[in-house]
């Protein structure tokens, strides 16, 4: 299980360099809010050989917008390009995912595409993660992810229990997809996450000390790395 940490700035990224994946986002613009290309570029320089991920946003059914943002993130240096689907329509999901995969993989076949659905999909009215995964696999994406869409402090575990997260992870494995799990995860969730055994867990609030709108703290990144390994 790898640890992905989401800094929101170059300054914060300096505290995240020992994580397995450095995930650039802009929390002020949503759960998977996109940061600026120059921030992705600088963090990629700082990260050296470490993979850099970039969130491109929480999207409606707008494949053109999503594809162009995905291409932009890949051109700026992101190794992983991550999009959230904030709508509930299977045909549109297929169109958005297919467009994002093509936008990234045509020019950069080695890059990784991550498709996120939200654990709180019922309250958001968005696509369920287990419905999204087979579509992501069919379109050639690499990872299916779960995050919380409304960042109000409620954790993914408040919407999906261990069994549901395990079933999601196993479904993805059988589809040839990796799994990333996130959503206000806490240090005390790490042992059960190890049992669920996704390829990646993603955190921000945990390493900010509980409030994801504050700064990432170097000592909490170290603590998370030690607990995950
Ligand atoms: O990709 C993971 C997210 O940044 C998780 O953020 P969070 O732990 O604050 O919910």
TrEMBL record:
Reactions the enzyme catalyzes: 2 D-glyceraldehyde 3-phosphate = 4-(hydroxymethyl)-2-furancarboxaldehyde phosphate + phosphate + 2 H2O
Pathway of action: Cofactor biosynthesis; methanofuran biosynthesis
EC category name: lyase
MF (Gene Ontology): carbon-carbon lyase activity
Residues of the active site: 25 (schiff-base intermediate with substrate), 82 (proton acceptor)
InterPro entries in the record: 4HFCP_synth, 4HFCP_synth_arc
Pfam families: 4HFCP_synth
Any one GO biological process: methanofuran biosynthetic process
Keywords attached to this entry: Lyase, Schiff base
Entry's EC annotation: 4.2.3.153
Function: Catalyzes the formation of 4-(hydroxymethyl)-2-furancarboxaldehyde phosphate (4-HFC-P) from two molecules of glyceraldehyde-3-P (GA-3-P).
Family, as annotated: Belongs to the MfnB family.
HAMAP family: MfnB
Protein name: (5-formylfuran-3-yl)methyl phosphate synthase
Annotated organism of origin: Methanorbis furvi
Classification of source organism: Archaea, Methanobacteriati, Methanobacteriota, Stenosarchaea group, Methanomicrobia
């Amino acid at each position: 299980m790898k640890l992905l940490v989401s800094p929101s700035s170059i300054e914060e990224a300096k505290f995240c360099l020992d994580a397995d994946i450095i995930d650039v986002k802009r929390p002020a613009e949503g759960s998977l809010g996109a940061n600026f290309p120059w921030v992705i570029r600088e963090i990629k320089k700082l990260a050296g050989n470490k993979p850099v991920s970039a969130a491109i946003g929480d999207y409606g059914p707008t494949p053109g917008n999503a594809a162009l943002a995905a291409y932009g993130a890949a051109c700026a240096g992101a190794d992983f390009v991550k999009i959230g689907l904030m709508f509930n329509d299977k045909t549109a999901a297929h169109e958005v995912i297919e467009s994002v995969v093509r936008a990234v993989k045509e020019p950069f076949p080695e890059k990784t595409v991550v498709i996120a659905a939200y654990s709180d999909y019922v309250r958001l009215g968005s696509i369920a993660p287990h419905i999204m995964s087979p579509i992501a696999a069919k379109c050639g994406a690499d990872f299916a992810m779960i995050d919380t869409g409304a960042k109000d402090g409620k954790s993914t575990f408040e919407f999906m229990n261990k069994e549901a997260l395990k079933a999601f992870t196993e479904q993805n494995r059988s589809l040839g997809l990796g799994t990333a799990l996130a959503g206000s995860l806490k240090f005390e969730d790490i042992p059960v996450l190890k049992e669920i055994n996704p390829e990646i867990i993603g955190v921000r609030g945990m390493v900010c000390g509980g409030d994801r709108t504050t700064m990432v703290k170097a000592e909490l990144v170290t603590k998370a790395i030690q607990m995950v390994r």
